[in-house]
């Protein structure tokens, strides 16, 4: 299987995008952490007031080591909790910190909530509810609006 990006990172860094999403997985997150271009792109999104979203290993592995969000509340993959400062960690499936426009989520099992919150932030709660209503989800799982 071959995966290709829709656009090279250098184009994303200078593009007119509303959000940058860092997917999880420890190996991928380590590659992101070690990419100067990726880290600078995330910092640029943050400085320009755009949304930064990270799930699973990405908050602890990319955002924290580079001190991109020193005051942002966040969550991440539970076994990496010790890598996130205790005063920033929230034990929730999805965390939106509007002060710094940071969206984080815990992992694969929270990906739908994470995606719905991105929809909510970009096009509104009504559209997120419309999408959510078409999904078959266990009762009590969808709390993206918190």
UniProtKB/TrEMBL annotation:
GO cellular component, one term: cytoplasm
Ranges for domain DJ-1/PfpI: 1-120
Transmembrane segments: none
CDD domains in the cross-refs: GATase1_DJ-1 (cd03135)
SUPFAM superfamilies: Class I glutamine amidotransferase-like
InterPro entries cross-referenced by the UniProt entry: Class_I_gatase-like (IPR029062), DJ-1 (IPR006287), DJ-1/PfpI (IPR002818), Prot/Nucl_acid_deglycase (IPR050325)
Gene3D superfamilies tied to this protein: 3.40.50.880
Pfam families: DJ-1_PfpI (PF01965)
Name of the protein: DJ-1 family protein
Biological source species: Escherichia coli
